[in-house]
Design a protein that fits this description.
6-stranded mixed β-sheet; single chain; Beta-galactosidase, Chain A, domain 5; alpha+beta; 18 helices; 13-stranded antiparallel β-sheet
Length: 753
């Protein structure tokens, strides 16, 4: 079947999804609220990208440009192999003389229309219209050449690999990091009249293959206006598997049908949570955030097999899909807990994938930053342990808890705690085991530990606090396995944050190897670029609160609830102390500021909920509602900082619903202030948890009273067991704070002690 244009219905979907206000509320489905352009212009660092993909699928693309302000796009992408990475292969349609051909053409573009599952763009100066629809491991492009008297070409490029052409098929590979390859098999519906290799600014006819940097082949289709249809498959196993993936998923060139199928898949996934409310923009932000929670990790199982960069081999998946590309430091906090609620089977598959990675690496160390090309070991700490215990205490089974304990324990004990390193444990790690903290260097003191990254530094406070939390998680797994002595040991290690607490200042303060606090010290600026010499991407004001497993003990350290509240208040009110350009030049991740609080970086996400632990939940309600409105909006700058594959977006999803998992590993949720009049969460077991708001209005942000499952509820939290079999939380809201609701210190959320 030959298609020359998208049907009117799908074109309307494409157009209206980019301008969601044009559909009536009654006509809209969840996917219609998704705005992939939200956050495409960054406040400072990396923007969000308008990713076209199916949920957690291997094939992802987006227009290749710096951000939305980029006036040019670099060809048309065929696959993005890592979150925020460049396209591995490139398609450049061209209509004109050979002298203007390049291996990748930079296009001026116009009238771009993008949904989660489809793409359309006018390459205006070339008078070419490109349309796209995606499946899991294959996709279709439709290229409309509109000039009546110019020759038409399709140019295919591999940045570093090989390409070959034979009649109407193109295949090849691109070499990624760690000897990983991504393969392509592509065919066009129309037979070309000319094929060859593009090299040295000429078509070398008769030559069918190119290899090396910018390996490039070209197909010519004669003169005149015409529409070309092409489809392709991708693989991390082989070209033959890429062809098999294409054949399995696509049997024609029907771009309309593929777009409609993708739309249905997204609607099914996004409909796991339904929300109602009068503010349409809130729904845009909510469903866009939910869409971003499905960007990673990605399933790379292909016909029951997968290539693992963790050992460089192809494995059978034995019926359990293999997932990778998960930046756990970002996603353990809320993205994984969200998946526990709405897709438990997938979360189990992901945990099992972590365990397979540990085995395949040969050291049985749990991964920290698993990517397509292996575990990059970025950031600090070993937070995969949190995903294991959080799933387990919330009822997930189907993975080997004993094996998970071994992998998590080895990752913490045998691998170095040094950030951005996969080296074995060394002197700093032994020091931590003996003294309960990572020692810091004085400003200007020379680093003597070889494995410390020259840019990322030791991050001693971030590592000490993060490892204390990881060891608490480890103690919970040991308890579940009946390992009493090990549970007791790691439970004691979970208090190691106390070793760097400065009672005089009320902050976590770096110490030297002799146990002396580094002085003089400024909790805003000390630590150099990104405060990494002591913290990590954020300053001491943010890490002051990084004890998610034991907030009760943190309150005690600070001298009680009243002082704890004062310290929290001050965090949101303390000025930057420098001009913005000076502050952000040093700590560029620490954006989205409200005082010293950073809405843009993951270690801050739980902080607004901490008022619940000290008897003033009304301040949590105020803060959450204010932060959501200030920093997350349905516009091009509507995300305050890096969106690391669902890390921040899951905060928006939870907080908009009205609750949040402050402590992954504790089966409980803190109550905030919901944005919607009602919400239904379709749980993985088929049950429904419903949140209903009475006296719903934008200004009514404060809880006056509540019932949970028909019973009066005066606690600012609830347990996972309260909702795991379905339930109903009814919140009666008002404009003025009810300072009595949830304020009894006997009813605060649980902590480790």
């Amino acid at each position: 079947m030959k298609l020359t244009t998208l049907t009117l219905s799908v074109f309307a979907v494409l157009l209206l999804s980019c301008t969601p206000g044009q559909l009536t509320t009654a006509e809209k489905e969840p996917v219609d609220y998704v705005n992939p352009y939200m956050g495409n212009i960054s406040h400072l660092l990396v923007p969000t990208y308008p990713t076209i993909h199916l949920p957690n699928s291997m094939l992802r693309v987006y227009p290749e440009r710096t951000d939305y302000t980029g006036d040019m796009i670099n060809g048309l992408p065929l696959i993005v192999t890592s979150h925020r990475g460049s396209s591995a292969f490139n398609l450049s349609p061209f209509q004109g003389t050979r002298e203007c051909i390049s291996h990748v053409i930079k296009y001026s573009y116009d009238n771009e229309q993008l949904t989660p599952y489809s793409y359309k763009v006018e390459l205006d100066e070339h008078n070419i219209i490109a349309s796209y629809a995606v499946s899991h491991q294959s996709a279709i492009y439709q290229i409309e050449f509109t000039e009546p008297d110019r020759p038409n070409y399709l140019i295919f490029n591999s940045r570093n690999g090989a390409m070959k052409v034979q009649e109407n098929t193109v295949s090849g590979y691109q070499l990624l990091e760690n000897d990983t390859r991504v393969y392509l098999y592509l065919e066009t519906e129309q037979m070309p009249v000319q094929t060859g290799v593009w090299a040295q600014n000429a078509i070398i006819e008769g030559k069918k293959a190119a290899e090396g940097s910018n390996a490039c082949v070209i197909l010519g289709y004669g003169d005149g206006a015409q529409t070309l249809n092409l489809r392709y498959g991708v693989s991390f196993i082989s070209e033959e598997q890429a062809k098999a993936n294409l054949r399995r998923e696509l049997n024609d060139y029907n771009i309309t049908a593929l777009a409609e199928k993708g739309r249905d898949i997204w609607n099914k996934e996004l409909s796991k949570i339904t929300v109602q409310g009068s503010n349409e923009s809130d729904k845009n932000v909510f469903y866009t955030s939910l869409y971003r929670c499905f960007e990673r990790p990605v399933c790379i199982s292909e016909d029951g097999r997968y290539y693992s960069a963790f050992d460089g081999k192809v494995h059978n998946d034995n019926g359990e899909p293999f997932y990778t590309d998960d930046w756990i430091w970002d996603t353990y906090r809320a993205t994984h807990p969200l998946r526990v609620l709405i897709d438990a089977k997938k979360e189990v598959d992901i945990i099992n994938s972590f365990l397979l990675m540990a085995e395949q690496m040969g050291n049985m160390w749990m991964p920290t930053f698993p990517e397509i090309t292996g575990d990059s070991r970025r950031m600090n700490s070993n937070h995969a342990v949190a995903t294991v215990i959080d799933g387990y205490v919330k009822g997930l089974r189907g993975f080997d808890l004993e094996k998970a304990y071994i992998a998590c324990k080895k990752g913490i004990e045998e691998k170095t705690l040094i950030p951005w390193s996969g080296a074995p444990a060394g002197w700093l790690d032994e020091f931590y085991k003996e003294n309960g903290y990572i020692p810091a260097l004085y400003p200007g003191e020379k680093e003597t530990v070889v494995n410390v990254h020259p840019y990322e530094k030791r991050q001693p406070i971030a590592v000490t606090l993060g490892t204390a939390y990881d060891q608490w998680c480890l103690s919970q797994i040991a308890t579940a396995l009946g390992l009493k002595e090990e549970a007791a040991y790691y439970a004691q290690c979970a208090y190691n944050y106390r070793n760097v607490y400065n009672a005089q200042t009320g902050f976590f303060h770096p110490k030297d190897k002799d146990g002396k606090f580094i002085e003089p010290f400024d909790y805003r600026y000390s630590g150099g670029m990104g405060a990494r010499e002591y913290y990590g991407e954020n300053n001491g004001w943010v890490y002051r609160w990084d004890v998610p497993h034991n907030v009760a003990d943190l309150i005690n350290l600070m001298g009680g609830s009243d002082q704890f509240i004062r310290n929290l208040d001050r965090t949101f009110n303390e000025p930057l102390g420098k001009s913005k350009f000076e502050f952000y030049a040093q700590i560029p991740d620490h954006t989205g500021n409200v005082g010293q609080f950073s809405m843009a970086n993951e270690p801050s996400l739980h902080i607004p909920y901490l008022y619940n632990y000290a008897g003033q939940p009304w301040k949590t309600q105020k803060r959450i509602r204010t932060l959501l409105k200030q920093w997350f909006r349905n516009d091009l700058m509507g995300v305050p900082g890096d969106e690391d594959g669902g890390g921040t977006s899951a905060f928006v999803v939870f907080s908009s619903l009205g609750f949040y998992p402050v402590t992954p590993g504790l089966p409980s949720y803190n109550i905030g202030s919901p944005l919607f009049s009602s919400a239904k969460i379709n749980l993985s077991n088929g049950k429904v948890f419903e949140i209903v708001v009475e006296n719903y209005a934008t200004e009514n942000k404060y809880i006056q009273s509540a019932t949970l499952n028909g019973k009066e509820w005066n606690k600012p939290w609830f347990a996972h067991t309260d909702i795991e079999n379905g339930g109903k939380l009814v919140l009666v809201m008002g404009k003025k704070a009810n300072k009595n609701w949830g304020s009894n210190l006997k009813d605060v959320p649980p902590s480790a002690n």
